[in-house]
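Training component of the fellowship. As part of building independent skills, the fellow (R.M.) carried out the full modelling exercise for a liganded target. The chosen ligand was zinc ion. The inputs are recorded below so that the supervisory panel can assess the work.
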Amino acid sequence: MDKHLIYLHYSVAHELAHGLLLEHLGFRTGAGSADEPTALWEHMADVVAIMYKHWAARNSTSASDWVVADKIFKATHVSAACRGSRDMKNPGTAWAYIHPTKGLISDKAAAHISQLAGSEPLTYYNMSTIPSRAFAEAVDLSGQPSYGLMGEIWWRTIMGLQKDKDSSINFKGFAKKTMETAQEYKTDNTIKQAWAKVGISIL
Ligand SMILES: [Zn+2]
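Fellow's submitted model of the complex:
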């Protein structure tokens, strides 16, 4: 890992979450596999990391900032167009720059399920932003911080998943489970609306 990343608390939170999820769920490390379970594994680590980031920034305005790993770009590359590695609220807008040989390259993170059908296959990182955006939308609708009600619902849902049985869960299956958890809090309608925004309808 690049030295400057080690000092970023939320990147550490993200990686620790991977370890916990691997232990708890037996999810694969995603070595090249761009499927929904692997993307969910990435999504869950981002949810844990963003909750940590928002909690740590709770007394400042950056609590509404959904950018993950915003120090990933070296200082010389940081610009208005390079805000971080992913933006959970506005996927596909986190970074763009002119590469010396490839020309303009930019964030390809998906914001909607329809983008999975595109001609270019997405990495599991770029798929993970679909459920991550649903989480961000749910948080916004709840009027609470990410580590409030929605964070609790997501965390309880993740912890309720079972090794082997749920290790190959897809987006829709996970969305359904968040709604089941939300029923206990009578907020299942909010969850339904949030998933609908990314094109996942739960009946
Ligand atoms: Zn990760």
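The panel noted the following from the submitted structure. The pocket of zinc ion is lined by residues 14, 18, 42, 45 (CB under 6 Å). The first helix runs from residue 3 to 6.
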